[in-house]
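Schema walkthrough. Field components (list of strings):
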Amino acid sequence: MDVYSRAREEIEAALKAAMAELKQDVPVVLDKAPAGMGDLAFPCFPLSKTMKKAPAVIAKELASMIRPRGAVEKVDSNGGYVNFHLKFAELAHETLGAALSQKQTYGRPDRPKGVKILVEHTSVNPTGPIHVGRARNPMIGDTLARILRQAGYDVSTEYYVNDVGRQVVVMTWGVKNLKVGVEPERDKDDYRYVLYYQKANKLLEEEPGREKEIGDMLYKLEHGDPETVRATHEVCDSVLKAIMQTLGRLNIAVDRFTWESKFVEDRSVDGIIERLKKSEHCHEQDGAYYLELESFGIAGRETKWFFTRSDGTSVYTTRDLAYHMDKFARTDIAVNILGEDHKLAMQELSAALTIMGVQKKPEILYYAFVSLPEGRMSTRKGVVVNLDDLLDEAVERAYEEVRKRREDLSEDRMREIARIVGIGALRYNIVRVQAEKQIVFKWEDALNFEGSSAPFIQYAHARACSILSKAGDWNRDFDAAHLATDHEKELVKSIAGFPSVLADCADNRRTHALAVYAQDLAAQFNQFYRFVPVLKAEGSARNARLALVEASMWALKNSLNSLGIEAPEEM
RNA sequence: GGGCGCGUGGCCUAGUCAGGAUAUGGCACUUGCCUCCUAAGCAAGUGGUCAAGGGUUCGAAUCCCUUCGCGCCCGCCA
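Field assembly_structure (string):
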């Protein structure tokens, strides 16, 4: 266990013992102490009433009762607070020692958790290029998966491919029956096939009579006509590969694709339907079956959830139910990354699971939409920023910046750094805010390379690498007592906080807190860099500072890596 | 009509779950700092009734209630 967590546990235990002695029963919650007042604090105000004493008096009393031991150096009081000061030398020695020995696994708990988590993310319909609005999903999903992995979970990622819906049928029908006169924007299958999709949609609006052809094809697909299944799958697969190529530029890949058609073909959906029909909540209307879910907290105009159509075929969420059963058989915990528009459908799915007697439920991380200043993104209306275009622009801007600063580098090296910096800036910009907050996409924010941004953090890392590469050999048997300035102490504490931040993000399935932490860590490092010379220091002070630089480097690198952002050694 | 989420300086944002010591950072703006380990940096400054009102509490950005604003949803679509 890391020093901070251990110290916290020790202090909580000591406080609980003191509470028992005083015959008081209040929950022991520790706060972070303000600068100069120690490390952790316990507010005594709640005790005031039952003990009939002023909080300051109680704090003083508690401070004298608790003897400093373990990681705690001193216990004192200030106003109504008991303040705990940790032994800095010990904290520093352990923290730096852990970072230097564990390297890229620094932050990971001592033992793997032995818990399998399946993170499903992206899962966009393969009907065209992915745009910035949709890209929030893979960025959050991939980041969460990386955080969970670094926090010791056994993680796999998965993309659920919709290949049985109307949309893919319309696209496939277009590819088979239509000619598109224009060249695609890019030489990629997602850009190529979306033209057929758009043309097909337009044609169907103009000639509603041809809708029957779509209906026929949909019927054939749902009843397993080999040729229709093959054609649809082929078109979807091409577009899917093109989408994954774009996501690959963002360092995003998934371990497995699961095709929705599988659950129709293997008849597991039929099994779900049979189970649901047996429920007392199930009713029938014109041959279609639904569950009445009002008693499951579903509210609104409509509390019926239809799980079959009149012709007996399944609907999307029914197939998703079969998919979840499949997932539950393969994992301990299923996490889904979904837009907030899926909330009701997931409530229905969850209720259906309960009705089926399934205890497991998916955990869902919802995110709000990314819109443009002119409104919601829509491929149909042309109000859209394609992810490929944003990626190109970010890399190009980063290239201009690199060229300004580093004329000494080769062209290839400049291009490589520009790629890492530009892409990192985009990922950071999306993942730095809480998922449930709406984002209005602005080019100037997305391409920000200063302040609260990935390049700021990457830059701190590059500075650390630069010092280490110039340092030559140094004695790694350092003495942490030489880290005496406030800048050094704050930096050590920041590095020490990494494991608990990581654990918090992993256990609470949130990504932005790590982004915020990394920015803070980089700021601490930059201040240290400005005020505390390392290479020019001498003897043991130089050793200790080099150890601090290397530990900073690992904390920065591991933070960035968990955010899916590469850490260049120079920039 | 109902459900869910969001509302923090001109703009973006942390803190809200587990209420506590002067509300976190960034952008922009003003002013300094490259004969010194990479200035994508550092330092200083201007700027806030934490949407509004009420309540609970010794103490509220945080908990409860009401109202307002914005977003999403309420299909035998996916």
